[in-house]
Every structure is written in structure tokens, then in C-alpha cells.
Specification:
The chain is an alpha/beta fold. It has three domains: about 1-85, Orthogonal Bundle (SP0561-like), CATH 1.10.3910.10; about 95-165, Translation Initiation Factor IF3 (2-Layer Sandwich); about 180-260, TusA-like domain (Translation Initiation Factor IF3), CATH 3.30.110. Helix content is about 35%, strand content about 20%. It contains twelve helices and ten strands. The strands form three sheets. A four-stranded mixed beta sheet has the order 3-4-6-5, with helices on one face. Strands 7-8-10-9 form a four-stranded mixed beta sheet, sandwiched between helices. A two-stranded parallel ribbon has the order 1-2. The chain is globular and about 60 Å long.
Length: about 260
């Protein structure tokens, strides 16, 4: 048996036994995203068993029961009670606070606001970001820039992300960098593309939906996306996974073409 704890990352379970993907996905519909390789890469390395239990609003014992037949021995002790009782977590030191829940509720993208606040934060200081979900894409961007990230779940719909700025800042501007002119790409894929509209979806569903669509997209097709805004968190993920994109703002919405140029 492999001994694990509530602090074990989901990615570690999958690495030890790929059967953990289906086992966890069967616990709750929240975990179906693990079946998608791209989404699994984003989510599994960030979330521990105890955090997943909070996200899925289920007990850690549910995980123990599903993982035991795969050879995992989940040792809980008092940690299980702590998380199941809904306590607020340990709490961390922070120097400034940014609450973006109202922006999200009003359909505003807080990316630029977060980046500006981080730019104003002194090296070595910690910004507490208060959100209604864990900002996985932002975390991946910042961790690549050597920011130290800690996440806590003080309540079901509240996520505290502690972002400690490195002593030496290396935060590059992540903007709208269309790889080719939009009309040129549109003409190339006009009769060979899949269309999706994410304007009605609340964050972070647009990004997750786009990534799900890309997982099913043949390499010779393009994904045509109608969006309310430029998906800033998505762009680094596209580049990292070998996709190119072209963006055009039109009639109060954002049009986006995502494709793989195998040439």
C-alpha cells in the first residue's frame, strides 16, 4: 500500500496510479475535468486531496474509499476533522489585500487590476488575493516568474491566494500578441473551423470550456471563439500547449481564432 495524506497532491496520485483519474472523477461531477489532459495538467498539480474535498463538497473519506482499491492508504488523523468542519485554515502573513469578487460578479476581468497591484507591491511582500475560485491560470503564470503561492479555503465560496513577490521581479507583460493577422487566419480556416460562444459563461468557465474544446479539436481545424474580453489568463496556456492565436475586437465583443500551424 502507498501511504498518502490529505496534503497529497492529486497529480502525485495520478503519477503513482493512472487509475486514480477515473476513481476521483467518479466521486463528484466537479472532478470530471481530470479526464481532460489539458485541464488535468492545470488543476491536478495545484490541488491536494483535502482541497479537492472542499471543492467537491464531500468528505475525505470518500477519497479514501475510492483510492483504497488502487493501493492507496489515506492516513487522516485530526486533519480530516479540521477540513470537514469547515474551519478557516491556518492563515498567512500578508502586506496588502485585493478582493476581486465584485469585479467577477459584474463580469469584469480582474487580470490587469491584479497585475497592477502586484507591480505596486514591494519585493518580498505578500498580496492576499480574495476570490470565489482558485485562480489556477494566474498561479501558473506567477509561479513561472518565481512568485511563491499559498492557497486556503476559508469558506465554500471564498478562496484566499497569498502571492509573495520575489526579491528579483521578472513579471513580463502578457498581452494580446496575435501570431498572424486575424483576417488571414480566418480566410485560411473559414471552411474548416469549429465555433463556440462563451460570452454567457461566468469565470472561470470560459477558459475551461475553450480548453475542453481544444482537446477535441483536430489539428487541421481552428477554434473560432466569441468572447466578452481578451482571455489574458488563457494566452500563456495556449502558447505552452503549442497553439497559435489571432484576436480581433468587433462590435463590442472579442473574436478569437485558435489553431495549430503544423507547417
Amino acid at each position: 500500500m502507498i501511504t498518502i495524506s490529505p496534503d497529497t497532491k492529486i497529480s502525485s496520485l495520478i503519477k503513482a496510479n493512472s487509475g486514480a483519474i477515473e476513481a476521483i472523477a467518479s466521486i463528484n461531477p466537479h472532478f470530471n475535468k481530470l479526464r481532460n489532459p489539458i485541464l488535468r495538467k492545470i488543476l491536478a498539480s495545484r490541488v491536494t486531496i483535502s482541497e479537492a474535498a472542499r471543492i467537491g463538497k464531500c468528505s475525505i473519506e470518500c477519497f479514501a474509499e475510492k483510492l483504497r482499491p488502487l493501493g492507496f492508504d489515506l492516513v487522516c488523523s485530526e486533519v480530516c476533522d479540521k477540513w470537514q468542519d469547515g474551519e478557516s485554515g491556518k492563515g498567512q502573513h500578508y502586506d496588502a489585500v485585493l478582493d476581486v469578487r465584485d469585479d467577477l460578479a459584474n463580469g469584469k476581468d480582474p487580470f490587469n487590476l491584479i497585475m497592477k497591484r502586484l507591480s505596486d507591491t514591494n519585493p518580498g511582500e505578500t498580496l492576499l488575493l480574495i476570490n470565489s475560485f482558485e485562480p489556477f491560470p494566474l498561479i501558473k503564470i506567477l509561479e513561472r516568474k518565481k512568485y511563491k503561492i499559498t492557497v486556503e479555503y476559508p469558506a465554500d465560496d471564498i478562496v484566499h491566494t497569498y502571492i509573495k513577490k520575489p526579491e528579483k521581479e521578472n513579471l513580463e507583460d502578457i498581452g494580446n500578441e496575435a501570431s498572424q493577422p486575424f483576417e488571414q487566419i480566418l480566410n485560411k480556416y473559414r471552411d474548416n473551423m469549429v465555433t463556440t460562444d462563451v460570452r454567457h459563461l461566468p469565470m472561470p468557465q470560459p477558459m475551461l470550456h475553450i480548453l475542453e474544446q481544444l482537446e477535441q479539436l483536430p489539428d487541421d481545424k481552428a477554434l473560432f471563439v466569441q468572447h466578452k474580453k481578451v482571455p489574458m489568463f488563457l494566452l500563456p496556456e495556449l502558447k505552452q500547449n503549442g497553439y497559435k492565436y489571432a484576436i480581433k475586437e468587433d462590435a463590442g465583443m472579442v473574436l478569437m481564432l485558435i489553431y495549430k500551424d503544423n507547417a
